[in-house]
Amino acid sequence: MIKAVIGGKTFTESRTIRVTIWNEFLAEKTNPEVANVYPRGIHYALAEGLAPYGFRIRTATLEMPEHGLTEQVINDTNVLIWWGHLAHEEVDDHVVERVYQKVLRGMGLIVLHSGHFSKLFQKLMGTTCQLKWREAEERERLWVVNPAHSITEGLGQYIELQEEETYGEFFDIPTPDELIFVGWFQGGEVFRSGCTFYRRRGKIFYFQPGHETHPTYYNKEILLVIANAVRWAASPHGAEPVFGNVKAQERE
Ligand code: ZN
To answer: pLDDT at position 11, please?
Structure first.
Protein backbone atom coordinates (compact mmCIF):
# COMPACT_ATOMS: atom_id res chain seq x y z
CA MET A 1 0.00 0.00 0.00
CA ILE A 2 1.33 3.45 -0.96
CA LYS A 3 0.11 6.49 0.98
CA ALA A 4 0.65 10.10 -0.03
CA VAL A 5 -0.77 13.34 1.36
CA ILE A 6 -1.09 16.07 -1.28
CA GLY A 7 -2.84 19.37 -0.53
CA GLY A 8 -4.48 17.91 2.59
CA LYS A 9 -5.92 14.97 0.66
CA THR A 10 -4.75 11.45 1.38
CA PHE A 11 -4.15 9.25 -1.63
CA THR A 12 -3.74 5.53 -1.16
CA GLU A 13 -2.90 3.08 -3.85
CA SER A 14 -3.06 -0.65 -3.50
CA ARG A 15 -0.18 -2.35 -5.26
CA THR A 16 -2.32 -5.33 -6.21
CA ILE A 17 -3.28 -4.97 -9.86
CA ARG A 18 -6.65 -6.51 -10.74
CA VAL A 19 -6.42 -8.36 -14.05
CA THR A 20 -9.27 -9.95 -16.02
CA ILE A 21 -8.26 -12.42 -18.74
CA TRP A 22 -10.94 -12.78 -21.41
CA ASN A 23 -10.86 -15.71 -23.84
CA GLU A 24 -13.57 -16.81 -26.28
CA PHE A 25 -12.65 -20.43 -25.27
CA LEU A 26 -13.98 -22.23 -28.34
CA ALA A 27 -11.16 -23.89 -30.28
CA GLU A 28 -9.88 -25.54 -27.09
CA LYS A 29 -13.22 -27.43 -26.86
CA THR A 30 -13.65 -28.36 -30.52
CA ASN A 31 -10.17 -28.81 -32.02
CA PRO A 32 -8.08 -31.65 -30.49
CA GLU A 33 -4.87 -30.05 -31.74
CA VAL A 34 -5.64 -26.93 -29.70
CA ALA A 35 -6.93 -28.91 -26.70
CA ASN A 36 -3.62 -30.75 -26.68
CA VAL A 37 -1.71 -27.47 -26.22
CA TYR A 38 -4.22 -25.70 -23.96
CA PRO A 39 -6.32 -28.43 -22.28
CA ARG A 40 -7.95 -25.99 -19.85
CA GLY A 41 -8.05 -23.04 -22.22
CA ILE A 42 -5.74 -20.19 -23.20
CA HIS A 43 -7.15 -18.09 -20.34
CA TYR A 44 -6.17 -20.76 -17.82
CA ALA A 45 -2.61 -21.01 -19.21
CA LEU A 46 -2.25 -17.23 -19.08
CA ALA A 47 -3.64 -17.06 -15.54
CA GLU A 48 -1.17 -19.72 -14.40
CA GLY A 49 1.73 -18.12 -16.22
CA LEU A 50 1.01 -14.67 -14.78
CA ALA A 51 0.30 -15.91 -11.23
CA PRO A 52 3.92 -15.54 -10.03
CA TYR A 53 3.75 -11.80 -10.77
CA GLY A 54 1.37 -11.18 -7.87
CA PHE A 55 -1.62 -9.80 -9.77
CA ARG A 56 -5.17 -10.55 -8.63
CA ILE A 57 -6.39 -12.53 -11.63
CA ARG A 58 -9.87 -13.60 -12.76
CA THR A 59 -10.91 -15.12 -16.06
CA ALA A 60 -13.99 -14.60 -18.21
CA THR A 61 -15.22 -16.39 -21.34
CA LEU A 62 -17.70 -15.85 -24.18
CA GLU A 63 -20.23 -18.42 -22.88
CA MET A 64 -20.69 -16.69 -19.50
CA PRO A 65 -23.63 -14.28 -19.01
CA GLU A 66 -22.57 -10.94 -20.53
CA HIS A 67 -19.42 -12.86 -21.58
CA GLY A 68 -18.26 -12.59 -17.96
CA LEU A 69 -17.71 -8.86 -18.43
CA THR A 70 -20.51 -7.45 -16.27
CA GLU A 71 -20.48 -3.87 -15.02
CA GLN A 72 -19.27 -5.18 -11.67
CA VAL A 73 -16.36 -7.15 -13.19
CA ILE A 74 -15.31 -4.27 -15.43
CA ASN A 75 -15.43 -1.83 -12.52
CA ASP A 76 -13.17 -4.17 -10.58
CA THR A 77 -10.59 -4.52 -13.39
CA ASN A 78 -7.41 -2.45 -13.84
CA VAL A 79 -6.24 -4.33 -16.92
CA LEU A 80 -8.22 -6.51 -19.33
CA ILE A 81 -6.40 -9.08 -21.48
CA TRP A 82 -8.27 -10.13 -24.64
CA TRP A 83 -7.91 -13.28 -26.79
CA GLY A 84 -10.47 -14.09 -29.50
CA HIS A 85 -10.50 -15.58 -32.98
CA LEU A 86 -13.54 -17.57 -34.19
CA ALA A 87 -16.38 -15.62 -32.60
CA HIS A 88 -15.64 -11.90 -32.80
CA GLU A 89 -19.14 -11.34 -34.21
CA GLU A 90 -20.78 -13.15 -31.28
CA VAL A 91 -19.51 -10.63 -28.77
CA ASP A 92 -22.50 -8.51 -27.78
CA ASP A 93 -22.31 -4.86 -28.88
CA HIS A 94 -23.47 -3.69 -25.43
CA VAL A 95 -20.53 -5.46 -23.80
CA VAL A 96 -18.15 -4.01 -26.40
CA GLU A 97 -19.49 -0.51 -25.67
CA ARG A 98 -19.14 -1.03 -21.90
CA VAL A 99 -15.52 -2.16 -22.22
CA TYR A 100 -14.74 0.59 -24.74
CA GLN A 101 -16.06 3.29 -22.38
CA LYS A 102 -14.06 1.83 -19.50
CA VAL A 103 -10.86 1.92 -21.58
CA LEU A 104 -11.47 5.61 -22.32
CA ARG A 105 -11.86 6.19 -18.57
CA GLY A 106 -8.50 4.52 -17.89
CA MET A 107 -8.75 0.72 -17.81
CA GLY A 108 -5.69 -0.86 -19.41
CA LEU A 109 -6.19 -3.23 -22.35
CA ILE A 110 -3.87 -5.88 -23.76
CA VAL A 111 -5.04 -7.34 -27.06
CA LEU A 112 -3.36 -10.60 -28.02
CA HIS A 113 -2.79 -12.18 -31.43
CA SER A 114 -6.05 -12.64 -33.42
CA GLY A 115 -7.76 -10.18 -31.08
CA HIS A 116 -6.68 -7.63 -33.70
CA PHE A 117 -9.97 -8.43 -35.47
CA SER A 118 -12.19 -8.05 -32.38
CA LYS A 119 -14.98 -5.46 -32.45
CA LEU A 120 -13.38 -3.83 -29.42
CA PHE A 121 -9.94 -3.35 -30.99
CA GLN A 122 -11.40 -2.18 -34.32
CA LYS A 123 -13.57 0.36 -32.47
CA LEU A 124 -10.59 1.67 -30.52
CA MET A 125 -8.39 1.85 -33.63
CA GLY A 126 -10.96 3.20 -36.09
CA THR A 127 -9.42 1.13 -38.90
CA THR A 128 -10.04 -2.34 -40.37
CA CYS A 129 -7.06 -3.93 -38.53
CA GLN A 130 -6.57 -6.31 -41.50
CA LEU A 131 -3.23 -8.04 -42.06
CA LYS A 132 -1.57 -10.86 -44.01
CA TRP A 133 -1.25 -14.32 -42.44
CA ARG A 134 -0.05 -17.85 -43.07
CA GLU A 135 -0.12 -20.97 -40.92
CA ALA A 136 3.25 -22.47 -41.79
CA GLU A 137 4.89 -23.07 -38.41
CA GLU A 138 7.64 -20.61 -39.19
CA ARG A 139 10.24 -19.36 -36.78
CA GLU A 140 9.68 -15.84 -35.49
CA ARG A 141 12.16 -13.38 -34.06
CA LEU A 142 10.57 -10.55 -32.11
CA TRP A 143 13.05 -7.69 -32.15
CA VAL A 144 12.96 -5.15 -29.31
CA VAL A 145 12.93 -1.78 -31.07
CA ASN A 146 12.18 0.32 -27.97
CA PRO A 147 14.53 -0.88 -25.21
CA ALA A 148 13.76 2.18 -23.05
CA HIS A 149 10.11 1.11 -22.69
CA SER A 150 9.10 -0.69 -19.47
CA ILE A 151 7.29 -3.38 -21.51
CA THR A 152 10.72 -4.69 -22.63
CA GLU A 153 12.27 -4.79 -19.16
CA GLY A 154 14.27 -7.97 -18.56
CA LEU A 155 14.55 -8.96 -22.23
CA GLY A 156 17.60 -9.26 -24.45
CA GLN A 157 17.71 -7.97 -28.02
CA TYR A 158 14.94 -10.27 -29.19
CA ILE A 159 12.64 -13.16 -28.33
CA GLU A 160 12.82 -16.20 -30.57
CA LEU A 161 9.80 -18.50 -31.06
CA GLN A 162 10.43 -21.80 -32.80
CA GLU A 163 7.02 -21.75 -34.45
CA GLU A 164 4.27 -19.16 -34.71
CA GLU A 165 1.57 -18.20 -37.18
CA THR A 166 3.03 -15.71 -39.64
CA TYR A 167 1.51 -12.23 -39.59
CA GLY A 168 2.69 -9.73 -42.21
CA GLU A 169 2.50 -6.07 -43.12
CA PHE A 170 0.62 -4.15 -44.11
CA PHE A 171 -1.26 -4.14 -40.78
CA ASP A 172 -4.11 -1.65 -41.13
CA ILE A 173 -3.83 0.15 -37.78
CA PRO A 174 -3.28 3.84 -37.05
CA THR A 175 0.40 4.72 -36.59
CA PRO A 176 1.12 3.37 -33.08
CA ASP A 177 1.94 5.82 -30.30
CA GLU A 178 4.93 3.62 -29.53
CA LEU A 179 6.38 0.74 -31.49
CA ILE A 180 7.90 -1.80 -29.09
CA PHE A 181 8.51 -4.97 -31.14
CA VAL A 182 9.00 -5.74 -34.81
CA GLY A 183 8.47 -9.39 -35.65
CA TRP A 184 10.46 -11.12 -38.40
CA PHE A 185 9.27 -14.44 -39.80
CA GLN A 186 11.23 -17.19 -41.51
CA GLY A 187 9.18 -16.78 -44.69
CA GLY A 188 10.31 -13.16 -45.06
CA GLU A 189 7.45 -11.10 -43.60
CA VAL A 190 7.87 -8.41 -40.98
CA PHE A 191 5.13 -7.18 -38.65
CA ARG A 192 4.56 -4.46 -36.05
CA SER A 193 4.19 -7.11 -33.34
CA GLY A 194 4.12 -4.92 -30.24
CA CYS A 195 2.41 -1.52 -30.37
CA THR A 196 0.99 0.87 -27.79
CA PHE A 197 -1.92 3.25 -28.25
CA TYR A 198 -3.31 5.91 -25.93
CA ARG A 199 -7.07 6.42 -26.09
CA ARG A 200 -8.09 9.28 -23.77
CA ARG A 201 -6.94 7.89 -20.38
CA GLY A 202 -6.63 4.26 -21.44
CA LYS A 203 -3.40 2.53 -22.35
CA ILE A 204 -3.59 -0.21 -24.96
CA PHE A 205 -0.92 -2.75 -25.92
CA TYR A 206 -1.30 -4.99 -28.95
CA PHE A 207 0.96 -8.07 -28.90
CA GLN A 208 1.02 -10.43 -31.90
CA PRO A 209 2.30 -13.85 -30.67
CA GLY A 210 -0.16 -16.51 -29.51
CA HIS A 211 -1.66 -18.72 -32.22
CA GLU A 212 -3.78 -21.40 -30.52
CA THR A 213 -1.89 -24.44 -31.89
CA HIS A 214 1.49 -23.26 -30.60
CA PRO A 215 2.64 -23.29 -26.95
CA THR A 216 3.49 -19.56 -27.04
CA TYR A 217 1.75 -18.69 -23.75
CA TYR A 218 4.01 -21.08 -21.85
CA ASN A 219 7.09 -19.16 -23.04
CA LYS A 220 8.62 -17.34 -20.07
CA GLU A 221 9.72 -14.32 -22.10
CA ILE A 222 6.28 -13.92 -23.68
CA LEU A 223 4.73 -14.08 -20.20
CA LEU A 224 7.27 -11.51 -18.98
CA VAL A 225 6.23 -9.11 -21.75
CA ILE A 226 2.55 -9.56 -20.88
CA ALA A 227 3.29 -9.03 -17.16
CA ASN A 228 5.33 -5.90 -17.94
CA ALA A 229 2.47 -4.66 -20.13
CA VAL A 230 -0.04 -5.27 -17.31
CA ARG A 231 2.04 -3.09 -14.97
CA TRP A 232 2.46 -0.41 -17.67
CA ALA A 233 -1.26 -0.33 -18.53
CA ALA A 234 -2.57 -0.52 -14.95
CA SER A 235 -2.28 3.18 -14.13
CA PRO A 236 -4.50 5.49 -16.18
CA HIS A 237 -2.84 8.00 -18.42
CA GLY A 238 -3.11 11.69 -17.50
CA ALA A 239 -6.04 13.59 -16.02
CA GLU A 240 -9.80 13.19 -16.44
CA PRO A 241 -10.86 15.76 -19.06
CA VAL A 242 -13.93 18.02 -18.85
CA PHE A 243 -16.35 18.05 -21.80
CA GLY A 244 -19.43 20.05 -22.73
CA ASN A 245 -20.77 23.53 -22.13
CA VAL A 246 -18.68 25.49 -19.60
CA LYS A 247 -18.85 28.87 -17.88
CA ALA A 248 -16.10 31.41 -18.54
CA GLN A 249 -13.20 31.20 -16.12
CA GLU A 250 -12.58 34.98 -16.18
CA ARG A 251 -14.94 37.99 -15.92
CA GLU A 252 -14.49 41.14 -18.02
ZN1 ZN B 1 -3.86 -17.39 -35.08
So the answer is: 55
Residue 42 CA to ligand 1 centre (angstroms): 12
Decide: pTM greater than 0.90.
yes
Name the residue among 166, 160, 122 with its Cα closest to residue 143: 160
Does domain 2-126+195-234 fall under CATH 3.40.50.880? My reply is yes
Cα 113 to averaged position of ligand 1 atoms, centre (Å): 6
pLDDT tens-place string over residues 59-94: 999 999 999 999 999 999 999 999 999 999 999 999
Nearest to 173 by CA among 123, 107, 212: 123
Is omega for the bond preceding 170 within 30 degrees of 0, making it cis? yes
CA 120 to each of CA 22, 46, 198, 215, 221: distance values in angstroms, whole numbers, following the listed order? 12, 20, 14, 25, 26
The CA 40 to ligand 1 mean position distance, Å, reads 18
Phi, psi of 74 (to 5 degrees): -65, -40
Cα–Cα separations (whole angstroms), residue 169 to 80, 180, 188 = 26, 16, 11
